[in-house]
Write a structure and sequence with these properties.
Helix content: over 70%
Structural class: mainly alpha
Low-confidence stretches: none
Mean pLDDT: 88
Strand content: under 5%
Oligomer: single chain
Shape: elongated
Number of strands: 0
């Protein structure tokens, strides 16, 4: 799916009521350079990131409409969710073991006190 970079940027500028002069100032480039960018068919990711930051929006979202990219994004999200679930399970087990350790320490302390009381008799 071909994405018109210039149109995408222009739509965001319009929706946020940002002029070419204001955006070029935020990007620290001339209006002529911005006009050239708005005519591009492709764009470097670094430049797209700078423009996204200047506009206060994630322009990379436009690319998520591509089916293959959606699948990658979904696969990545599922992988992260699986990892989070595993980490939660590990954390719960760790907390359970820490509670068990605390109980054991309390029990041993009671046994020591009992032993000491027996020796005093």
């Amino acid at each position: 799916m071909a994405i018109n970079i210039g149109l995408m940027i222009w739509k965001e500028m319009k929706s946020k009521e940002i002029t070419k002069g204001e955006l070029s100032s935020r990007l620290n480039i001339s209006r002529f350079t911005l006009d050239q960018i708005l005519k591009l068919n492709t764009i470097e990711t670094n430049l797209l990131m700078q423009i996204s930051l200047a506009l206060g929006t994630n322009l990379f979202e436009y690319y998520y409409h591509d089916i293959e990219l959606k699948k990658l994004r979904t696969d990545a999200r599922e992988s992260i969710e699986d990892e989070v679930a595993l980490l939660k399970t590990i954390l719960e087990e760790k907390n359970r073991l820490l509670d068990l350790k605390d109980e054991m320490i309390k029990s041993q302390a009671k046994m020591i006190i009992s032993y000491e009381n027996l020796q005093k008799r």
